[in-house]
Amino acid sequence: MSQDLLPKPLPYHLMEQIRREIIAGRHAAGAPLREQALQIEYGCSRAPIREALRLLERRGLVTHEPRHGFRVREVSATEVRQIYEVRALLEKQVVLGLLGRVTPELIAELHATNATMRAHRAAGDVERYIEANIAFHAVLRAHAPNEPLGRALDVVYEMAEPIRHALLHRSLRTSQAAEQHDDIISLLEADRVVEAAEEMYRHVFTGMPVALGTVAHPEGSNG
Question: Locate the HTH gntR-type domain: which residues (predicted)?
Fold first, then answer.
């Protein structure tokens, strides 16, 4: 049997379930994650629930205070800015890693994932749009392998995931990410990699104003 088909240990399975619910907004920022309620919901003992919450804490989605328990991490406006700043620098570095590595295969893969993004945007499918967006950036990483850089980006992506979902639930129809990706692809196609890296840096920052709005004015507010 392939290792990918083996069942995950229960704490990891629970972590993925709770993670999806946090990202989808079922557990709001700052909301308590009560172990007893999760036990009842998932029909298991407290130990794997607690381990799942500890795993989420390490991934930056959950916080823990002694005697107060676990809560969904609240992200401040300052932290939103910091996440965007770090991600912009890292994504720029990914593109710089393509110097001397731009191939027709890379360009074709980027066009294909970007077309998928457009299709999901037209269908109003936030989840699949995000998946395609992540796939676009994954193609760049795959053509310029850099394990430390990739690990750093994985952490930033995880912290940004609830923000990204909140943002796109507000603004999917008006998202211009695919068009901005077109500009990056065109620069890479012309082998203007340094300029493409600068364009990537700007591209990451374009979502920050709306992301800050999701912190200042949570869903459902009229502000």
Answer: 8-75
Are 105 and 170 in a shared domain? yes
Q: What's the total number of domains in the chain?
A: 2
- pLDDT, tens digit, 9 for 90 and up, residues 25-56: 788 888 899 999 999 999 998 999 999 999 98
> Is residue 111 included in any domain, yes or no?
yes
Are 125 and 171 found together in one domain?
Answer: yes
Q: Is 142 part of any domain?
A: yes
Distance CA 94, CA 188 (A): 13
